[in-house]
Design goal:
single chain, alpha+beta, Alpha-Beta Plaits, Calcium-transporting ATPase, cytoplasmic transduction domain A, Calcium-transporting ATPase, cytoplasmic domain N, 7-stranded mixed sheet, 6-stranded antiparallel sheet
Length: 766
């Protein structure tokens, strides 16, 4: 009998970036988008003790939604004594600072000096951190006033162009006045940020754009200077709107939980309260058609629940007294009452959202590549722009102004905004799509790595099978023995174990279990303990062999059951087997389809189980698995995963128990089955399948492959457009406003291409 099954919990030893420690970002990108100011009187952000003198502060940064701002913040804060790791989440505009400062006032002052509008972000892991409430939804919105100012700026810039074209004079007072008005209404924010970048010696897009506008004005291109700044600001604001879709893909998950709950008071009356105020163990009533407000256990009533928001299951699941229900799921039929098992902030849905948000901070391989590329690309283009402006006039006596203009166009082209922003948007969209279908991916590194899987090791019990076996045969090995008394002894030992086979035997109990002393679990083999002073073993075929109790007659009898796919368990007193109990597990209906799907994707599927080889082969025959290995102890599973990795390459492991932990840790990606409501699996798995449907693994692999294609497309589009306009600029066929327009277009193309992943997993019926 295999050892106990518990939640998936492991620590990885493979070379991944598991923590969200951000890396250096691109030097330039789009500038900050328009934002609404938060409360002017911002309290000092809270800190949370981590270990020793180390503290953590979490900020919401209104004007941080692009690598431009992140790089500027990183450069300044990393220079401060006492500041350690910095973690950035651009999509959510969050900054987490690990530090050893007596006060975080210097951090607040630095962020304020950079005009980032920092505000407290309460730490969800430490509610005592406090902090002012932040209306993030309002902060994300672009104020109507900004749109009006941009409209007026556009009219002024267009007026400047019209006057210059009709009069033939680019330097007349009306042209200059209208251009200055357009720059003031549409570009003061950009120029201010450009000045901040200059003071901090940061080569970012705001500085490059400010330089391009000032340069255009200096050579008398006033109308074009105004048009460029207006187009740049418009590009920022449109991009802000498109990025909201990626942000809303995550926010939409949390919105599935209702804000109100019907709660029973101390006097027995029912009242409607905010869900956030409902305490643990409170009694909550859910009417037909309502969403479940909080995680809980049903105490009265029966119903069917649509669990799609949590597990991705399309078919409602029958629920009765004692069954768990999750916040955000939909009560299809009968009314029921539940006892609250988790407050709003700790619900399964909340943990899913929190995990997806934290996963955004883990930088995917493509994102790290893009950032490194941008670090080289920007200085290279700037150097080319300087040479273009200087060399022709010096070497061949060319006119300075046309070449300076070409150099300014190259500076605008130097912005890698489309290249840099496409990666996080694509990754976030993929993470959100997976979460909506019951697949919780713990970082972009796993989303990208899934496409490389070439082998997958599957645990049997609770993974391929239901993990809820039932006793099919009970036989005393001595014809004169009291079978009922022996079964009671077996039940007493089995009741101390959580293994599915033990639970099936314990369910046969007809009388109270006997007292067991010196109980010990034997990993992968069974259990032992003393009852009334006698030592008993209750275990599988392997244990009987190890104890030297397996006679040829018993061996033949065991093999008869095992060839039928039944797991045999023997009760041994001293050195003699006395009772045989056969247990059969049933294969999940989805397992065969999942195995076939995986094989079609080119993934080699192997089954690893602690059960005997005959049982393994019987289950494998039902599911189409060619390679099934039985009698696998935890170390055997670990060695099997290592061998599969050497033979095939990238290998995943799917399991649900502590016996699988070493193999799960060794695999490149560890999948936890049935993680809904399981704290440990949600927190530690690389990929957590919220229900027990193996078909979600092929869905995950296909999503990974689609994400890779989208990332490759985005990089090709961004670099292709840059290359085309760089060639046009050097040939004198591109203008400043054309370069800005191309950059804006490329950014929108890659963002919306990345957002396609939100619907990359098709709905499955049944």
């Amino acid at each position: 009998m295999a050892g106990h099954k518990h939640e998936h919990s492991h620590r990885h030893d493979h070379d991944h970036d598991h923590h969200a420690h951000s890396h250096a970002h691109a030097d330039a990108c789009c500038g900050s988008h328009a934002h609404q100011a938060l409360d002017a009187a911002m309290p000092v952000p809270p800190t949370r003790k981590l270990d020793g003198a180390s503290e953590q502060a979490v900020f919401f940064i209104q004007k941080m939604d692009c690598p431009t701002e992140e790089k500027l913040i990183r450069e300044r804060l990393s220079q401060m004594t006492g500041v350690g790791a910095l973690e950035f989440n651009l999509i959510q505009r969050e900054l987490t600072v690990q530090h050893q400062l007596p006060s975080i006032a210097p951090i607040v002052d630095t962020l304020t000096a950079l005009d980032m509008l920092p505000a407290v972000k309460s730490d969800s892991l430490d509610a005592a951190a406090g902090g002012a409430a932040i209306d993030q939804a309002a902060a994300y919105r672009i104020p109507t006033r900004r749109w009006i100012m941009l409209g007026l700026a556009g009219l002024a810039a267009l007026g400047s162009e019209v006057v210059a074209w009709t009069s033939g004079d680019d330097h007349s007072l009306p042209v200059i006045a209208l251009a200055l008005l357009g720059i003031a209404l549409g570009g003061i924010g950009t120029l201010k940020k450009g000045w901040i970048a200059l003071r901090n010696f940061s080569l970012n897009m705001n500085f490059l754009m400010s330089l391009a506008v000032i340069g255009a004005a200096a050579i008398g291109q006033w109308p074009e200077a105004a048009v460029v700044i207006v187009l740049f600001t418009l590009a920022e604001m449109i991009e802000a709107l498109s990025l909201d879709r990626a942000r809303n893909a995550i926010a939409g998950l949390m919105a599935m939980a209702p804000d109100l709950a019907t709660v029973r008071g101390a006097d027995g009356s029912w009242s409607v309260l905010p869900a956030r105020e409902v305490a643990l163990d409170a009694a909550v009533r859910v009417a037909p058609g309502e969403r479940v407000p909080l995680d809980g256990v049903i105490t009265a009533g029966t119903t069917s629940i649509n669990q799609a928001p949590i597990t991705g299951e399309s078919i409602p699941v029958a629920k009765q007294v004692g069954d768990a229900v999750f916040a955000g799921t939909i009560n299809e039929h009968g009314a029921f009452e539940l006892r609250v098992t988790a407050v709003q902030g700790d619900s399964t849905l909340s943990r899913i959202v929190r995990s997806v948000q934290q996963a955004q901070g883990q930088r995917a391989p493509t994102q790290r590549f893009v950032d490194r590329f941008a670090q080289v690309y920007i200085p290279a283009v700037v150097a080319i722009a300087v040479l273009v402006a200087v060399l022709p006039p010096l070497l061949i006596g060319a006119d300075f102004q046309p070449w300076l203009y070409k150099a300014l166009v190259l500076l605008v082209i130097a912005c890698p905004c489309a290249l840099v922003i496409s990666t996080p948007v694509t990754i976030v969209s993929g993470l959100a799509a997976a979460a909506r279908h019951g697949i919780l991916i713990k970082g972009g590194v796993y989303l990208e790595q899934g496409r490389k899987l070439r082998a997958l090791a599957l645990d049997k019990t609770g993974t391929i099978t239901f993990g809820k076996p039932a006793v099919t045969d009970v036989a005393a090995l001595d014809s004169g023995a009291d079978q009922a008394a022996l079964l009671r002894l077996a039940v007493s030992l089995a009741a101390r174990s959580d293994h599915p086979v033990s639970r099936a035997i314990a369910a046969q109990q007809g009388a109270a279990a006997l007292e067991v002393s010196d109980f010990e679990a034997l990993a992968g083999r069974g259990v032992r303990g003393r009852i009334d002073g006698d030592l008993y073993h209750l275990g599988n075929h392997r244990l009987v062999h190890e104890l030297g109790m397996c006679s040829p007659e018993l061996e033949a009898r065991l093999q008869t059951f095992e060839k039928q796919g039944k797991t045999t368990t023997l009760l041994c007193r001293g050195a003699r087997p006395e009772l045989l109990v056969a247990v059969a597990d049933t294969v999940r209906p989805s397992s065969r389809a999942a195995v076939a799907d995986l094989q079609q994707l080119g993934v080699n599927v192997v089954m690893l189980t602690g059960d005997n080889t005959h049982t393994a082969q019987a289950i494998a025959a039902q599911t189409g698995i060619a390679d099934a290995r039985g009698d696998q102890l935890p170390d055997d599973k670990l060695k099997a995963v290592e061998e599969l990795g050497m033979r095939y390459g990238e290998t995943g492991m799917v399991g649900d128990g502590i016996n699988d932990a070493p193999a799960l840790a060794r695999a490149q990606i560890g999948f936890a089955m049935g993680a809904a409501g399981t704290d440990t699996a949600l927190e530690t798995a690389d990929v957590a399948l919220m229900d027990d449907d193996l078909r979600k693994i092929p869905d995950f692999i296909r999503l990974s492959r689609t994400a890779h294609r989208v990332l490759a497309q985005n990089i090709a589009v961004a670099l292709g457009i840059k290359a085309v306009f760089m060639a046009l600029a050097l040939a004198g066929m591109s203008s400043l406003w054309m370069a800005v327009f191309a950059d804006m277009g490329a950014s929108l193309i890659v963002v919306f291409n990345g957002l396609r992943l939100v619907r990359a997993i098709p709905a499955r019926n049944g």
